[in-house]
Predict the 3D structure of the following.
Amino acid sequence: MFEDKTLVCKDCGEEFVFTAREQEFYESKGFVNEPQRCKPCRDKRKAAARGPREMHEATCAACGGVARVPFIPRDDRPVYCSECFAKMKEQEAAEEAPAQTETEE
Ligand SMILES: [Zn+2]
Ligand SMILES: [Zn+2]
């Protein structure tokens, strides 16, 4: 059986609880080391490790140029290069604008 354990975070020096449930999880995953950091610090490091967003190249559905997107492009979803995307946004805004400014008097 596992018992909650209090550990000290390597990064911020704060104590955090390594719960019995987490210990069980760690063991089921075959992890041998206890966590070195509290959850907020782990999350921070994860976010930092991700760093600048990974970009994926795809073909722009509008102009056929290279589109770089921050997600893995899927075949069933068109992707657009930043130029076409911006153009589309502009168009959308232009189409929406008159309706928004229309007032009934
Ligand atoms: Zn910490
Ligand atoms: Zn394009």
